[in-house]
Amino acid sequence: MGAAFLIGDSKEASFGDAGAAVIMGGLGFLCDLGSIPLFLASGKNKRRGMAASASIIMQNAYALQKQSISIIPFPALSLKIRL
Questions:
Q1: Mean pLDDT score of the chain
Q2: Could you give the dihedral angle defined by the CA atoms of residues 5, 10, 14 and 16, in that order, rounded to the nearest 10 degrees?
Q3: What is the pTM of this model?
Q4: Is 60 left (phi over 0), alpha (psi -120 to 50) or beta?
Q5: Domain spans of the chain?
Q6: How far is 7 from 10, CA to CA, in rounded Å?
Q7: Of 44, 54, 43, 42, nearest to 81 (Cα)?
Q8: What pLDDT does residue 53 have?
Q9: d(CA 82, CA 16)
Q10: Which end of the chain has fewer CB within 10 Å, C or N?
Q11: DSSP states of 3-49
């Protein structure tokens, strides 16, 4: 929108330049209006991302060792993201 004002305010601007400035200004204004919902959605996504948590927990796995099944513990990374 700022470029449109600079083009339209020029002393040497012709009628065609002024028309281009009006179109550029209108498109800039529509882009500004279109960015508002995206800005609000980014705040919502930021809150969701800040609520994510990670932890290390111990899990159990079954393994076959010498003709018997045994339980072997192993560490696992847990990541919780609320959708």
A1: 83
A2: -20
A3: 0.47
A4: beta
A5: 2-80
A6: 6
A7: 54
A8: 87
A9: 53
A10: C
A11: HHHHHHH-TT--HHHHHHHHHHHHHHHHHHHHHHHHHHHHHHHHHHH
